[in-house]
């Protein structure tokens, strides 16, 4: 208020001068006052994407056409965000794939390992944070998880989920502090936090960070369950600003609960499922945040193409 009164006084003084003297002050004083009036905090953008799987057919495509081809028609959307988060549906290891050319429905068909260059592929495409809190991260055991951590860290990609000590990832994006909290419905005890522990983590960071929950939950290929809805609302009641989910491999419904957006499942982002239309459809959600929290969300619909790519889908 004091600055505003001084500004008004300066303007009155300037306009009371004869015209031949006003120009002496205009460039510096008036421009400075105008710039003070137009300073506005720009919201930052976080883009959320769904399940990413780089084995089986996707690995074969990348071996021939490179991994960049898989993300080639969605790269602009990825690069346009300040921060990108997605679910990495398996470990990054030096092990040979057992799922390539495996029998559909057989045990090896669902045992994933992604090639080491996957970490750099994520980095090149502006993916800053991946969730490892899912039912495939331990497909190659603890050693596979350790390799995953090593490859991601070397590439400069952060991770959350997996071992209990990795259930929260804290980061400042454009000087705004965020806490990304992982909840994995499918991990065995000792490798996950329970619901009440997740609520405790959310409450812990509410006063200092913007808490965002990334959950792996629900039933594959089905709408959001009552259990998902109950959990999401508990997370919001604990103080979460946003809740985003993965695992069902289809886009599930979303809702606003107590002014907080809940996206139960974003569906597949990079995957080789084509057996019906629902599994080929996904969505990316670009959310804007200010220092006070969530501002707005914009959805981009995606589709899996049979050449291995993920592309924007025209409705």
Automatic annotation (TrEMBL):
This is Capsule synthesis protein CapA domain-containing protein. Residues 45-273 form the Capsule synthesis protein CapA domain. It comes from Candidatus Kaiserbacteria bacterium CG10_big_fil_rev_8_21_14_0_10_45_20. It comes from the Bacteria. Belongs to the CapA family. InterPro entries: Capsule_synth_CapA, CW_Biosynth-Accessory, Metallo-depent_PP-like.
């Amino acid at each position: 208020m004091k600055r505003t009164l001084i500004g008004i006084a300066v303007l009155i003084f300037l306009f009371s001068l004869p015209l031949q003297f006003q120009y002496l002050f205009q460039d510096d004083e008036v421009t400075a006052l105008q710039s003070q009036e137009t300073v506005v905090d720009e919201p930052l953008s976080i883009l959320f994407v769904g399940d990413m799987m780089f084995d089986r057919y996707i690995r074969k495509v990348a071996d021939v056409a490179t991994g960049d081809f898989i993300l080639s028609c969605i790269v602009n959307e990825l690069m346009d965000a300040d921060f990108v988060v997605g679910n990495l549906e398996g470990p990054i290891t030096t092990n040979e794939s057992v799922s390539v050319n495996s029998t559909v429905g057989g045990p090896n068909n669902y045992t994933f390992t992604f090639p080491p260059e996957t970490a750099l592929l994520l980095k090149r495409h502006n993916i800053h944070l991946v969730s490892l809190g899912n039912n495939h991260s331990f497909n190659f055991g603890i050693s596979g998880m350790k390799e995953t951590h090593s490859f991601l860290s070397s590439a400069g990609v952060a991770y959350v989920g997996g071992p209990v000590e990795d259930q929260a990832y804290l980061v400042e994006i454009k000087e705004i502090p965020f806490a990304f909290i992982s909840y994995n419905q499918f991990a065995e005890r000792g490798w996950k936090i329970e619901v009440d522990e997740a609520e405790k983590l959310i409450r812990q960071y509410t006063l200092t960070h913007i808490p965002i929950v990334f959950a792996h939950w629900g039933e594959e290929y089905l709408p959001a369950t009552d259990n998902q809805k109950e959990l999401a609302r508990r997370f919001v009641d604990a103080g979460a600003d946003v809740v985003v989910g993965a695992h069902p491999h289809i886009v599930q419904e979303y809702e606003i609960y107590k002014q907080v957006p809940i996206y139960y499942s974003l569906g597949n982002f990079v995957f080789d499922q084509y057996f019906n239309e629902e599994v080929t459809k996904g969505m990316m959600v670009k959310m804007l945040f200010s220092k006070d929290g969530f501002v707005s969300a914009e959805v981009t619909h995606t589709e899996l193409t049979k050449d291995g790519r993920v592309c924007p889908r025209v409705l």
